[in-house]
Amino acid sequence: MPKWKITxxxxxxxxxLITHGSADRLTHWIxxxxxxxxxxxxxxxxxxxxxxxxxxxxxxxxxxxxxxxQQISRLKQIAxxxxxxxxxxxxxxxxxxxxxxxxxxxxxx
Length: 109
Description:
Layout: H1 3-12, E1 16-22, E2 28-33, H2 69-81, H3 87-91, H4 97-108
Antiparallel strand pairs: 1-2
């Protein structure tokens, strides 16, 4: 976009052009300011605490890996060897491969 066009747009929306420049033939920059007076000065980063609401139920946001039959069979085998649950429940798919993997990782740590 040509400089004259962008400066025209800046004027039309009521912003002030502070300065402009270019690093090279293809890289240009413009510093603009919203009109009005700055009433607060930020002295440091915002400090905050997160409080969990009553009744909040955490959600597992991890991306679940897609497992093939061989991997699922191996996860079941490892879970049974590590005594992570009833072997019948494990073999009858009571746990998803993702759950089995998490159980195994937790037991290893």
